[in-house]
Predict the structure of DNA polymerase I.
Amino acid sequence: MKKSDHLFLVDGSGFIFRAFHALPPLTRKSDGLPVGAVSGFCNMLWKLMTDARDTSVGVTPTHFAVIFDYSSKTFRKEIYDAYKANRSAPPEELVPQFGLIREATRAFNLPCIETEGFEADDIIATYARMAEAVGADVTIISSDKDLMQLVSPNVHMYDSMKDKQIGIPDVIEKWGVPPEKMIDLQALTGDSTDNIPGIPGIGPKTAAQLLAEYGDLDTLLGRASEIKQQKRRESIIANAELARLSRSLVTLRTDTPIEVPLDGLLLEPQDGPKLVAFLKAMEFNSLTRRVADATGTDAGAVEAAAVKVQWGKDAHGPDLDAAPIDGVELDDATKASPGSNGTARLSPSLTAAGLPTGAAPVDLATMRAELFATAKIDHSGYVTIRDLVTLDAWIAKARETGLVAFDTETTSLDAMQAEIAGFSLAIADNDADPSGLSIRAAYVPLGHKTGHGDLLGGGPADNQIPLADALARLKALLEDPSVLKVGQNLKYDYLLMRRYGIIIESFDDTMLMSYALDAGDGSHGMDGLSEHFLGHTPIAYKDVAGSGKSLVTFDMVDIDRATAYAAEDADVTLRLWMVLKPRLAAEKLTTVYERLERPLLPVLARMEERGISVDRQILSRLSGELAQGAAALEDEIYQLAGERFNIGSPKQLGDILFGKMGFPGGSKTKTGQWSTSAQVLEDLAAAGQDLPRKIVDWRQLTKLKSTYTDALPGFIHPDTKRVHTSYSLAATTTGRLSSSEPNLQNIPVRTAEGRKIRTAFVSTPGHKLISADYSQIELRVLAHVADIPQLKQAFAEGMDIHAMTASEMFGVPVEGMPSEVRRRAKAINFGIIYGISAFGLANQLSIERSEAGDYIRKYFERFPGIRDYMENTKAVAREKGYVETIFGRRVHYPEIKSSNPQVRAFNERAAINAPIQGSAADVIRRAMIKMEPALAKAGLGERVRMLLQVHDELIFEVEDNDVERTMPVIVSVMENAAMPAVDMKVPLKVDARAASNWDEAH
């Protein structure tokens, strides 16, 4: 190697990790061999090699190597036995892929380097310093912070996922120190991912400040007594040896034994037949065609290579389960494993592109995942549309392709009050690339301001299409059923457009697709999905609109910056649709999406638009009553405590309860304070302690006052004079809806004070509120799914299910049953659904744990089918990683095989409950979807308005004269909601009442 040479060093283990976690699970069609990580690795390496050999791109390497971890047993374990001890073993399906990935590297005609006892980072460090010593340049393909200590004038890093070079200024910008101080910074901060201790309480910013002040770690430790902040000083002095130990762990070895010299890393020409043979053996059809075309290889003339698969102990590789992506902690979305999606509205060109005749949906899903995981997003091609001629051309192109991604930019997150600032479109240029990879995106500014002008925020910016003209064009497009509109969290845009007189027809929502596919296995927001499926981190909203005091509404954002942000949103959304849509069909979840998710979107949008009337005077009166009640409790608390203190301060409260009063069961949090959680106080109250009970009651009253009676008036819309809550379809794992701004799901109904708050939700003059509530729906679902004869009979005969359970368990006749006996049976019935333990039941019933355990054992003896259902459900969840509702909704539990007993037990309880709670949620979703057509058919569509959904209850506003006609329709729809998809083995029962306020109707 000589001075003018350039060495590329690929962090192969990082590539494996990204490939495994970034793409859907994939198996070889012929034998079911897991090959998802191999596929992702090959695609990423091919992209990197293609760019590296293209002299027009920029830097061209002369030498090239892919570096791997040999195993988790390295010299660092000898220094510190707990090093990486928190890492679990590699997933079973990844083990055979380690050897295949090494074979793939050799098939690419690249050196495959690993050294027993050392990590890939040490080998990279050794090669980098060797090349630097002869004056050559080095590019390390990684963004791992552990490698940033190597950056120098001759050594750079390259983040291939973000297409970003990392040099000395970039390290300083990110970490606040130059590369040569990264070792000391990491020694101070430690690394939870690798179980490197560091100094507790020292984060990157503090570490950078300390190193700037003291120069290096040794000087800092030697002068630690000079540090002014007491806690920081004490922590550094007490943990000095941990810092030195951490330094030895993070320091990369530059003297790793090297078997292949630098000259042995010379980049050889690509051997097309050799690579094609390997890819054919893996059955990567799309990549095989691309490689064959690029290398001039006749793929048909090449036989598939004979590739040996290594299993078990023969397949060494790094512990990847808990590893970061290039040093960045994974969020839930990144850890998620994809599910599936359908192909209901794919245009022919997008469906057929690149697929052989007779290809199955899984082939399309796999092809799309491969393509879009490595396709770069190019902001330079985004367009700002400022005239109607250009807008018309884009709309015409959308009509031609039959597919367009759509997103709005507004002045508020509240769709009921937001003003539109502009909208973005993205379309696939099928002529340029029928695979869908060629995507054009544009932003149409409509209401942007200059930031100067009138006192209300500036005058209109120049060169914007008049709002009315643009919306007229947009209306024709969005209401055209022949064009599929794609959005992310489209309910917001749907409701916004309704306010402008536009009803979106024919649409898909990528958030709901992701939810149908991967509920329980990651988040469904656009940024997380983009990073997970596309390997792309979108522009952050704060980067264009600011944050904190500098935050501005989107109409005040510069239009060029707005275009980059908004067009990217549409671009990313369309790409996500390309990836997710085929998965619905491939994994047979199209029905779940098209019957439970997508049709509920406009229903909820209309409910949000309607809102509900709230009486300010009632809220004001209740606020006063709650204040008086809280004040009375405060006096009692002070008397019992023997002094006045801040009841709302956890520290002061803990000191009173456990420091001064000496109550048992006290435990301290990580900060050293006594824990005063709700559970701690409830346990003390259950043990007969009066002071904790008063505090629990005080907390309830003050929360009701602050959360509802004081806050609700602020949610009353200035124009409609009603409260418009916002529903989230994809916020829970089981399909239950949640509401926010305000949250109406958590108003307590078991206390008199909570029920009083519902009296403030009122009907308008001439109307009544109808509350229709499913009776014990989850117990009925349990009887159905577990097929329990006693429960089925009791529900069929309309018996009191809790009295029947008590009679079965305790041998007490139903007639004249003591209320306490029934209460215990009720607690067990509902507790079993949620996987209650003997400890939890004992607390709930204020009995000994042994007695509670006896109750649970007896329950299972009387209803053995329930125990069988639980064990079968856990077995299915462990086998598949998910459970299903009676309608096919999947809820994933990726940690159900966790080695941590607590984590595993939690996932098992959740998996048992999910088919029950999820099925109940699906029933009410089906009822909501069917409700408006049924009311319209009965001639009540204009006079009956569905307003709210709260758990198992629907609330309607009905004209007085129509109440009697309406209730039977509502009850019928709800009780028959499962039909015809599922014929329930037990009848569903709905209780409906009408009144002038919600409490009286419930």
Remarks:
- The chain has a mean pLDDT of 87.
